[in-house]
Amino acid sequence: MSKMPTVKDVAEYAGVSVGTVSRVLSGEAAVKPLLRERVNEAISALGYRPNVTARALRTSRTDIIGLVVPDITNPFFAQLAASVERAALECAHSLMLASSHNDSEAEQSHVSAFLDRSVRGIIVVASSDGSGLDLSTSVPVISLDRRFGAFPLVSTNHAQAATLIADHLYGLGHRHIAYIAGPADTEAGRMRKEAFVRRIDGFGKAYGPVELEIAHGRFDYESGERIARELLSRPPQSRPTAIAAASDQQAIGALRAARDLKIDVPRKLSITGFDDISLANLVVPRLTTVRQPADMLARRAVRLLLEEPRGMGDEMVDGSLIVRGSSGPCPQPDAAARKSKPVHGKSDA
Asked: What CATH number did the domain enclosing 108 receive?
């Protein structure tokens, strides 16, 4: 059996020092691109595989990043996890994934398990605002999309993104709008709702009456379908002409309810979402939504986790409006038939 190549063999083949090889294997950004390329070519040519266990014993850390998401069956979190994995690989790290199933105790258990395995760092998409408060560790931790304890957050600017949807629907002439909010125990859910309500209220005060109804649910298909069915089961003159949902899953559930009730989208009803999951571009009609830049968020979270010295502040990235077939102009005949109503009415479905 031939001898397995060592770090020294890689260094000799590449014509660099052992220290340079070690820095490349550690993913250090300071290594010159030309040297990094020579080392990687030597690794490939020799078939070198680093001894992860030995390195962990020597450095008290591995080249593994731990990621905890609230629900891996949620398409957005699945897409986000794939983006984090790609970003980790770009930095010569592997990803270890866990799902908390929206349970803060399970979330803490996964984080503790990662710490026991000497991971390089941990990225957490929190289950709720109350999670992570008792965690104390020297291992770098980054919050992603949802805040985990007091750790720095990398997130879409939820307020800015929600405003894009409000502007879009108001610009289409909708003056009776229903908003399906997400869970109140998540900062993202609250920010989206508050920004949307604030924007619509501002339009009402500046330009005339706007009726806004608010219902609360989870970020899932079932909530969207149930709430939309209740809203749309009313007589045509008293139901909203637009439904803005706090997630694509809710919006797709609302599309299902509208189809079951034979309400034409977008001629009689506009529906919008938030996230731009892959399914948003596959449903009929295709969903107007806000795109969260998952790849950019993941890449920034990983780099913040690995950089020295570590940054301590939050980072927000703007979302972008993706207009597709589920939104259209307000149906004027229905609007004319509707009686005048208060500027701001709320209902919790």
From this structure: 3.40.50.2300
Classify residue 270: in a domain, yes or no: yes
Q: Which residues, 6 or more positions from 129, have their beta carbon under 8 angstroms from its beta carbon?
A: 147, 185, 186, 187
| Strands of 211-216's sheet in order across | 211-216, 176-181, 242-245, 270-272
Identify whether 343 is part of a domain: no
Domain assignment present for 2? no
pLDDT digits (tens, 9 = 90+) for 78-123: 999 999 999 999 988 999 999 999 998 999 999 999 988 889 999 9
Burial of 254 (0-12, 13-18, 19+ CB in 10 A): buried
Q: Whole domain around residue 215: which residue ranges?
A: 158-288+323-337
User: How many folded domains does the chain comprise?
Assistant: 3
Transcribe 130-181 into DSSP letters: TTTTT---SS-EEEESB--TTS-EEEE-HHHHHHHHHHHHHHTT--EEEEEE
How does pLDDT run across 309-339, given as a tens digit for each residue?
Answer: 666 689 999 999 999 999 999 998 644 444 4
Model confidence, pTM: 0.78
* 26 and 171, same domain (yes or no): no
pLDDT of residue 2: 60
The whole-number pLDDT of residue 179 equals 98
Q: Is the pLDDT of residue 345 over 50?
A: no
Of 266, 259, 209, 212, the residue nearest 232 (C-alpha): 259
Kindly state the tokens that stand for 84. Answer: 């984090």
Residue 122 near residue 141 (C-beta atoms within 8 A): yes
CA 174 to mean position of chain CA atoms: 28
Give the helix ranges, DSSP H, for the chain.
7-14, 18-25, 33-46, 52-59, 75-90, 104-116, 158-171, 187-207, 221-232, 248-260, 294-306, 332-337
Domain membership flag for residue 207: yes
Do 329 and 249 have their domain in common? yes
Query: Per residue in 121-152, pLDDT tens?
Result: 999 999 887 666 566 678 899 999 999 988 99
DSSP string, 256-285: HHHHHTT--TTTT-EEE-SB--GGGGTSSS
